[in-house]
Write a structure and sequence with these properties.
Distance between the termini: 38 Å
Strand order of the largest sheet: 6-12-11-8-9
CATH class: Mainly Beta
CATH topology: Immunoglobulin-like
Low-confidence stretches: 1-22, 216-221
Shape: globular
Radius of gyration: 21 Å
């Protein structure tokens, strides 16, 4: 009886700890990236030396699953799009509609972040390191292209999505989505405003689906 009891508790613990992991449904894979920098080289007339300017961020992809009606509460705290090393960091930020974003300046000079994008048109004006402007709410899905009025080489992107299921690839194009609802949905890989790759996928409870976005796209379940 003692052995059975102990075995039962062990099985319960295994189910409680490991079962949750096995119940997670996900998608992982890679996206082929171009490796292009997001912005041009900085202009020499800024008076900045090479050590002050960070390398222009490279193109990354945003992979997201479109699940009609899927919503989560936006983050309680605003997300950050920092100006650091006279570049936007991160270069690509993905957010769910309703999310707030702030634009702190970590450089010793003024910045002036603005966007003419239809999704979110704004101009924060010039602000110094100790003058972080108020948070902006991104309440409409779409692409927001970011620029600095002072430093014309600076480029950034905020991709606003109506789904909570998204991930930004790493520099090698790898991504992972987890905690996904079961069903057949559309998976998209956004590279830029002209390039979005789409593929229908079927998410199975407790399974991780592999989807690679390349010249020949593949999908396998394990």
């Amino acid at each position: 009886m003692m052995c059975l009891t102990r075995c039962s508790f062990a099985a319960l613990a295994l189910f409680s700890c490991g079962g949750v992991l096995h119940a997670q449904s996900g998608i992982e894979g890679t996206v082929v990236l171009t490796g292009r920098p997001m912005g041009p080289p900085p202009a020499s007339h800024y008076g900045l030396n090479a050590g002050q300017v960070a390398a222009s961020p490279k193109q990354l992809a945003v992979v997201y699953l479109e699940v009609p009606g899927a919503k989560k509460s936006p983050p309680a705290k605003p997300l950050l799009m920092v100006q650091s090393g006279y570049q936007f960091a991160p270069g690509v930020l993905a957010v769910q509609t309703g999310t707030q974003v702030v634009f702190p300046n970590n450089d010793s000079d003024y910045h002036n972040v603005f966007s003419f994008s239809k999704t979110k048109r704004f101009d924060l004006g010039r602000f110094r390191k100790d003058e972080t402007p108020p948070a902006l709410t991104f309440d409409k899905a779409g692409v927001v292209r970011l620029y600095c009025e002072i430093h014309q080489h600076m480029r950034g992107v905020i991709l606003v999505l109506d789904t909570p299921h998204f991930a930004i690839t790493d520099a090698d194009g790898r991504y992972r989505l987890s905690g996904l609802p079961a069903g057949t949905w559309q998976l998209k890989a956004w590279l830029d405003e002209k390039t979005t790759i789409m593929q229908d996928v079927t998410v199975t409870p407790g399974k991780t689906l592999r989807v690679d976005f390349a010249g020949v796209r593949t999908a396998s379940t394990r």
